[in-house]
Write a structure and sequence with these properties.
2 copies of one chain form a homodimer. The first copy, chain A, is α+β, with helices and mostly antiparallel strands. Chain A contains 5 helices and 5 strands; from the N terminus they run αααββαββαβ. Chain A has a 4-stranded antiparallel β-sheet with strand order 3-4-2-5. In chain A, a hairpin with a 4-residue loop joins strand 3 and strand 4. In chain A, helix 2 crosses helix 3. Strand 3 of chain A pairs antiparallel with strand 5 of chain B, so a sheet runs across the interface. Chain A binds a DNA duplex (17 and 17 nucleotides) through helix 3.
DNA sequence: GCTGAAATTCCTCAAAG
DNA sequence: CTTTGAGGAATTTCAGC
């Protein structure tokens, strides 16, 4: 159960680290008006409390050879196994996110693949593995994509 | 036009930086068997070539006060302005991603908000701003969510 | 909680092979 | 690409408030 952000200082730290995950303690200290040590202690606490889950490099999907993205909606053929589906899909590296949803489908996946052929292969394997019907929406263009930011 | 990843070493570097965006050059050097200087040059090249777009901290959305996520599908009421829609939506900080898609809708958004009431407000504003009909799918649970990784 | 300072590690750049 | 070295910068740790 993750905490809320305590105060304005933590919120500022989180904002800055979302904008630049490699911001130095010195930079953060200057922005907050605290000492480097104090900032370090706060950031450490945000990390151990799970507010900051980690730091990642954002890689261009095309450079990875994954230029094609798609949403795949899943409808279980056997509703009894509904809750097991995410576990069955965790191995597929092509799946970037897996959301259980309220709506026509039970689950919505966001996937990245190398080609239309790879998408077809993935869809078939997901159907078989999870025993689901699928409905796929191909992404034509990603207009923008960004990290959730603290609401000012 | 972003380059492909050149070789196995660049792929390994990218993988490691996706797993830990704060990995030190020394760590990367040990994993690749290269010198720190060589790794530094490679990472720099990946950055300037746009393969590495940046580094970000991943923040727990709940800690930010944004526990509710949803997909919103947009259908333009006036198809002539189709291509302008993403620009009109860029200011909404609640919108995490905006994809143009092939399917029933023209555009699919992924959004994070504080509450059902905030979701309703957002939907109304999106409709008005972009002159679209909307179809919203509420996320009940995010089973997993991860960065695209280089396919082994 | 915070500060400040010392000790350590890391980054950056250059030179030379 | 490698190694080396030097200078600066960042991180860590710890004493003290």
């Amino acid at each position: 159960m993750p905490r809320q952000l305590d105060d304005a200082t933590d919120t500022l730290l989180a904002s800055m680290l979302v904008a630049d995950g490699r911001a130095t303690l010195k930079t953060l200290a200057e922005a907050t008006g605290l000492s480097v040590s104090a900032v370090q202690a706060r950031v450490r606490r945000l990390e151990t409390d799970g507010v900051i889950r980690g730091y990642v490099a954002q890689i261009d999907p095309e450079a990875l050879g994954l230029p094609l993205a798609a949403f795949i909606s899943l409808t279980p053929l056997d509703p009894r196994q509904d809750y097991e589906i995410p576990d069955l899909l965790a191995d597929f590296s092509e799946i970037e996110s897996c959301h259980s949803v309220a709506g026509d489908a039970s689950i919505v996946l966001f996937v990245r693949v190398a080609s239309p052929a790879a998408l077809e292969t993935l869809i078939r394997e997901v159907r078989k593995r999870a025993n689901v019907a699928t409905r796929t929406t191909v992404v034509l263009q990603t207009c923008f994509e960004r990290q959730a930011r603290p609401p000012s």
